[in-house]
Each structure stands twice: as structure tokens, then as C-alpha cells.
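Hi P.,

Sorry for the delay on this. The queue was packed all week, but I finally got your sequence through. Input first:
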Amino acid sequence: MISVSAPNKLSENAEIILKKRYLQRDENDNIVETIDQFWDRVSMGRSDYREMLSSLKFLPNSPTLFNLGTGRGTLSACFKFDVPDSMDGILSVAHKAGLVQKFGGGVGYALSNLRHAGAHINSTHGKACGPIRVIKHYQSLAEMITQGGKRDGAQMAILSVDHPDIREFIHMKDKDPQRFNTFNISVAVTDKFMHSIIGDGEYIDSKNEITFDEIVDSAWRTGDPGLYFIDKAEESNPTPWLGKLTGTNPCAEVPLLDNEACLLGSVNLSKFVTPNGWLMDELKDTVELAVEYLDDVLDRNTFPDENITKAVFLTRKLGLGVMGWADALAIQGVAYDSEQAIQLAEQIMRFIDNVASGKSFQLGTTKGAAPCLVGGPDEVIVRNTTLTCIAPTGSISLIAGCSSGIEPHYSHEWTRTMGDGTILNESLPKFSIVPKTAMEIGWQWHVKHQAAFQKYTDLAVSKTINMPNDATREDIRDAYIMMWERGCKGGTIFRDGCRDEQVLNTVDKPTRNKDGKPLLFPMNGNNGGVISASTRTKLPIDRQASIHKMDIGNFEGYVTVGLYPDGRPGELFIQSHKEGSTISGLLDTIGILTSLLLQHGVPIDGIATKLIGSAFEPSGFTRNSNIPKTTSVIDYIFRWLIAKFGTSVGVVNGNLCPDCGGHVMLQEGCEKCMCGWSRC
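Then the structure:
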């Protein structure tokens, strides 16, 4: 028999997640919103929306749950930027990405426009830093934002397979995967490239074969890179006249144009199935209402940059997906690794896609079509240029109490490591069958499910092709080829144990309380209590401050540091004479984020080590004899802060790092650089 929870009943873990991440807090970090008030807030005053959400039939992406009804932040989860081949462009993208991540959005970067490392720059007679250095810069920014936010930042870097720096890109996580822990990375490969790999006539290319072997080897060892089948994605580009889909969001389910964002949500399929069959009328009603809900949320959305706003409202892209797929199969007694499951996947997704398209057509006739379609040759009047995608649904599936996305059950008993280090113990409900787990199912069935859902999905499908630890490199090679041959738009492969740290881990024995409920416990076993978030200590209303003037070439500005009574730095203000500029906006963001970190107890030493050595204009000689030359304004500011307030990291040495050219610091008696180089 099936164990079914009462309607609207949240699990213990779901309530914990809501309290830790989603319920509103006051300036002292106290929860000021009940769960009932939470449902009221995210339902926008409509009773039909509230019933759909609180019954866990459908949930939107996390930023909507964070920010809807608060008057702050974006409501979309997925963003993508094409990184221009200029310093101004690189910094402009960093500024936009920082503001997006501040409020819970994930960012993808298409990096193929960047010149290779060492390329000559005519305007400065210098050398280009290359894509990897740019990724390091974005990684440092994301790490700062993560420490002050509600969850880990998420980023995706995509580089074309024919880029001169592709080999360095492929292997960037080989030695130290945690060095780029906010990034997923994928190689954009063409159909021509894949034809060469399978030896298809004229396309045979030994250079491509070598590159593919390196991709496979790195994926086997580290889980990265994935592949982005860029021609497959472009085939279904609904607006090719606006640009190309050069990259995706962090989880790869949303190929996007430059500056675009997509609003996501997922239907909980486990709510629409019984042992005797599917509740198709109820599913239809929920899909229609979910499309209307997402479209209404989109109208309430705000973005930190006018280019994002223009791009989003021009195409009005939505990404309605599913979760609870493995649960739905188990309720029906259908094995995940069966042709019946694959047929059901196609049928259900085709139904959802048709219903969603019909609803968007209806909205287009009553509220107006997506602006990019108005006056077009086909006279299309749909409200949204895309409607469906399959997201991983990590957080919202935990709230809904169902399996994530279209993934099989990970294990019968498993632990989930949250972004703050908290571990959740979880287990399967009792189904009429005992489902096979992700590692018990052959990888071919993972690919078949991804391809089945992709067939009737506008955007893409986020699906991890799980493999056991003893999987071979040949298995990974064959999986990538099978994904491409079956029409998938991208692929991610994870061999169990290939990383030292994993979000999901199987356990030999469940950890449960006396009532049989999963427990929440900290990583370090501190008496079985819950790890609490750090406490923010604000500065007193009246406080001392230290003010410093900086002159870097033609750039002038002031650094103001607010101090606690004991002399410790607690806030940072950076004033630039170039008001309204990109650099001014970036400095404002750095100041705000640094202040939050300091007030949450992060020492200035730890912040500075991530930012010293940042290289961009303005740079060069200064009027400070202690810091005669700097690689950027950020480098200068944090070198000054270390010299003024640092305690344990050390002092900046006059030498430069032989690997990256950044400033070497004395740490623990050894010259070290933030890039990882060490003289010891």
C-alpha cells in the first residue's frame, strides 16, 4: 500500500527549509512571517493560486518564494549573459551578475567571445587575460555574495570547443574542484564536432577526437565539464532573429539569449496519479493555472539592469516543468528502467506542453502577445515564446515532499547537504513496489528519460546521468554520444565518488527519531542540534570612522570604514568621483557586501585574500608610497584595509605571482597568492 500524507501537510524537513530560507525576517534576523502568511504572500491575493500552492500541486522557482510581495529583488531564477571581449564589458557583466545573485538568481556566462589568454590588446599594448581569469573573478564575487545570502550562488561557464583556451577550460577543476565550487562548466559542441567523434564520413577529425577524450577523462574524474549541444538548442530557438542561444543558466535547462532571464515553476506529478491511473482533468486545470500564475508573476518582476528588463519582456519566456516523476511511477507500480516509463514520460510531457501552449494562446488573445511576435510574419499571438523546461527542483521538491525533477530516487535512505552545511536525513515513502535507485539503474535509462521529456519540451532538460563508481571512461563517452543522438540539448554526467563533497550521499543506516521521522543535524555532530546562521552585529548609531583618499592614475575616490567600539571594521563605503559609471556601481556593490560580511563576523583578512590581485582598469601607479602600484581599485582598497586593520593574513609583498601576476602575500610565513600559487 502507498503511504500518502494528508493534504497540505508539510513534512518536518519542509518546515525547517521554509524557516531557514523562505520566511521573511526583520533587521535582526528574527522570523516575522508564519507559513500561512507565506502562502498568502506568494499567492498574490488569489484563492485559486493559494490552493494550488499550499496543496503542493505546483511551486514556482525559489526567488519567487523569497521575494514576491516584498518589494525587493528579482522573481526569476535563471539568467544568462554574453561576456564581451573588453574590460568594461567584463566588469559590467560582473555588476549585473552580482545584483542578480544577491536576490537568489543563478547566472550563466557565454565566454566564447573572449580572446585567448596572452592575446595582444591594441588599445593598451597589453595581453588578454583569457576566459579562465575572468571565471576566477566571477568566482570571487559569487563567494562573497554566498556568505551573506540565503543559499549558495550558482554559476555556469560555457566555452566553445574551438576556443584556443579550451584545454585549460576542460581541466580547470582537475586539481582542485572546490576552487571553482560555484561554477558548473560545459563545453559548447556543434553537430559537426559530434559527427567527427562518431566517425561520420567527411567529418573525421583527429584533433576533435583528442579534445573529446580529454572532456571524457575530466568528466570521469571530477564530474565536469558537461556538454552543451549548441546546434540542437539553436534548432528550437523561437526567436532566431533576436540572437543565438550561446549559453544556458547554471543547471543547463534554459538556453537563453544575451541578458535574458526565465521564470520557472514545476508541477508535482505525484499529486495527479493513483495506482489506477492518472488524474488528467486535475492535471490540465493545474497546468493552465500554473501558466497563468507564472505570467502574472512575470508582470510583477523587476530586474537590476534595463537591458535585462528589455530582453525579458520582449520574449516573456516561461519554463514550466515537473517534479515528483519517480514518485508518480512508483505509485503506479511502474519501474523507472522500463519502456513503459519512457512511453509515459512522452505522453505526460506532450500533454503538459499542449495544455500550456493552449493557455498561452488564450492569454495572448486577452492580454497581448509577446512583443517580439507582434507584427511578425506568422501572426503568432501566444503570450510567451517558451513555456516548458525541466528544472532540477532541488529546494522546491523538498518543500513539496516529492522526488526532484525527473530524477529517479537517489537511494532508499540518504543525506542531503544544504548550502549552510546542515544535513537533512531523508528516506523513501512506502510504495507498492521497491523502486530501483539512481545507481542501480543503468545509465542508458537515465539518457532515455532525458530524451523522452526533451521531445516535448521547449527549452531543455536538467538531468544528471548518474553512474556508479566503477563506471568507465568508455561509459561516459557512450553516454555523451547517446544524449546527442537522441536529441538532448546538453548533458551532465556524475560518477559516484568523483568529488570529495557531494550534495547527496547514501547512508548505511537511517538516522531517525523515535517516531521514525528524519532528523536534522549538523555536519560536525555538535550534540545533534541544528546549525544556526551567523548572527549579524550592527554598529552603534554613533561610531568612529577611518577615511582614506585614493588616487590611481586619473581615478580619485574615498574609502570610509565604520568602526566598532573596539576598533574593528564593521562597514565599508567606497565613493568614486565617476558617479553613475560601471565602476561606481561595482564599488557600491563591493562596499555593501563587505559590510554584511564584516557584520556577520567574517574577518577582513579572509575577505581581502579573495579580492587582492583583481586586475582591471583603472590600475597602475598611485600616490600612496606604501602601495605604489596596483592592479585595480579593488586590489588597492583591500591592500589598504589589510595594512590598516588586518590581523592574521599577513602583509602584501612587493613581488608578483609568476602564475597570474597578482600580488603575493605573506601567509603563515610563506609567500602565497590568491590564485593558489605558493612558494613553499
